[in-house]
Structures are given as C-alpha cells and as structure tokens.
Amino acid sequence: MKIKVGVIFGGESVEHEVSIISAVQAMNKLDQEKYEIVPIYITKDREWYTGAMLRDVESYQDLELIKKYATNVVLYYKNGAFVLQSKGLFKKVVADIDIAFPITHGTNVEDGALQGYLQTIGIPYVGPNVYAAAVGQDKVYMRDIFAANHLPIPKYTWFYDTDYRQDMDKIIEQVEQLKYPVIVKPATTGSSVGIGTASDQDTLKKAIEEAMIYDSKIIVEEMVQNLMEVNISVLGNYEHQQTSVIEEVLAGHAFLTYEDKYLGNGKIKGKMGVKTPRKGSKGMASANRKIPADLTEKMEKEVQDIAIRAFKALGSSGDARIDMLIDTKAKKVYVNEINSIPGSLAFYLWDPLGKDYTELLDDMINIGIKDFKRRQNKTHSFESNILEGFAANGVKGLKGKLNK
What we know:
By secondary structure, the chain is an alpha+beta fold. It has helices at 16-29, 63-69, 113-121, 130-137, 139-148, 161-166, 168-175, 201-212, 258-263, 297-313, 357-376, 390-402; strands at residues 3-10, 35-42, 48-50, 71-78, 81-86, 93-97, 99-102, 156-160, 182-186, 196-198, 217-222, 227-236, 241-249, 268-270, 273-274, 289-290, 318-327, 332-339. The protein has a 7-stranded mixed sheet, with helices on both faces. Strands 15-14-16-13-12-17-18 form a 7-stranded mixed sheet. A 4-stranded antiparallel sheet has the order 8-11-9-10.
C-alpha cells in the first residue's frame, strides 16, 4: 500500500512563489510507485487547496483559476485519519494523508507556525520541529545559539524597528560599533529578500529603511572580507548526520540576491565547464555556482565539521542547507545561516554523491517517520486528571467569585 504524502507549500510569505517552485520540483521527483502524492497549496490569504492541477507549475500563472477549479479544504484529525475536508455548505472528505511534507519558505510557514499546527493535530511530518524551525528562521535567535555553542560567526548587532524610529541616532551609534562595510538584514526573511549593504552612514540608513519594510527585527553584521561564499547540505537529525558536496556561490554582487537565485538564467559551473543556461526559474538549482567548491582538503573538512555542529546546535532535522562565509586571505570560516527547508531542497548538492532527488526525498520522509515515532515514545501528558474532585468544591467557589 502506498504512503499518502501531503506536500504542503505556498503560504503568506514573501517567498510564496519560491515555495511553489520547490514543491512542484519535489512532487515530480517523488517515487510514485511508493507514494501517493497529495498537493496542498496555501494561498497568500491562507486558504488551503488540493487537486491534481496543483502539481503543474503553469497552474499558478492565474491564481484565480486555482480557487475556481481546486478544492478549498481544511486539514484535521477525524476518526483515526488525517483528512482534507472540503469547506462550504456540503462538506466532504476529499483525501486523507499519512504524513505531511512541508516544502515552505519564509515567515508564517517555515518558522514553526505550520509545524506547530501539524504537531498539535498529531500528524507525522518531514523536516524540522517547531523549535528548530523557529530558530532557523530568525537570524537573531540563530546567531545567539551559534555564539553560545562557540561557532564562528561575524560580529553583529540587532534592534527593533520601533527602537530605530524612537531614537535613530542611538541605533546608528550602536551599529557603528561594528566596522564598515556591513550587511543589513530583516531577521526572519529568506531568499535574500530585503537585504542590503552599507559602507557609510547614509547607505546604512537606506538599508535599514528597506529592511524594515519586511520585518520588525533587524540584524546588522560586519561583512566578511576577501569573501568566498559556500553552501553545504546536512541530512539527518540530532542522532545521525551526513554532508553533501560543498558548492561555491557565484554572484556579481556583495551577496547572492533574490534575482540571482530565482529570476535569472543561472548556470552551474562544474569541472567540465559551464552548462547551458536554463530557461526561466528553476529555484535555487538555477543560481550560478561551482560544484565542488575549490577548497583545500583541510578547509573542506572544517566546513563539514562546522555544518554538522550548527545543524545539531539548532536541533534540525531533514535536509538543511548551511550557508558559510570564508575569508580566503585569513583562511577563516564563518557560519552565515541555516536554511531549514532550503530552496529546491538543495537536491543539486547530493547528485554528485550519487544520491538523486528521488532518493533524497525518500530519505527525508524516512527521517520524518523516525522523528514521529521518537516523539510518540516520549511522555507528553499524564493519564491522571488533577481536576478530579475539583468540581465539587472548586467550581462552586469559582462561581461565587464570578457572581460577585
């Protein structure tokens, strides 16, 4: 019997379209002999839909057609099953799923909110739990945890938008304790949305104003000099981890922009040269990169070790991508951030090791099932009811107080 996998994607996030690309890629690569694929699309206004048309990326060119022809549903637990039930006057169960596979990016969906709902109704799911998802989305929490675990990170500071608006001079002074140039980021966005650089106070103010459009919490950090940006993927959970090949990110800017990642005709540069440019966006797989990165064996080992330490420090699970910054002159590696559910699920980093996308997805689902079984074996509630006997005396007393 096939395992019914509910692939959840979209959501109220600035990375909504990126999530669609990643999810459609994955649904087309899941082993259909082994899995029954149930697409679950969350619109930007937080409505949930299912239907076969959601597996075709062209369906998303007109979102109104999806609302017209796909089925508007809710996911909940009913009679021993996790069901998708239609909304409206004539409600009916249109599908049921065995495990949820969130392929979501950004706030409101990747940041623990969706994982919290899935865990509340008790369904097995793939990827990070609530805690790992939350700290993996918030760059401030993430860096605080990295620092506590003695992982190498650039110097940083952070503040709220209200603090900046109430006393801009104080925040600017706080930031200028760092050395220019700096990079300014919204704390909880991904895909380089809202990120800017600054080399003086004027450009700093402009970058902060831009970042505040997307988030209430802003982080500013020193830019690594002589920069080489590399990424590596870690697959597993807190018990077991394996690492992918390391890629060098190639960008014509101080950092890899949203346009570099998703809107351009990227190339992949390998040992045999540059491949043909791709038409349209294919997610992070379309970005310019060099695989494998040109690193010494010693530096490669350091990147792998730091990636695993970062993965474990955040309690991650599934397939996460760890982005790192290298000062090539000082030969020093810094952790930039973790992507708990990376664009395109970083499948292109596993191909060179002989693990194709289908096998990677299978591994992720198996890890999700193991994580669920582990949670089931832990005690989360007690059979005893401390409220027994309370009604006779306690409720009477409570009623008396309420009636006063």
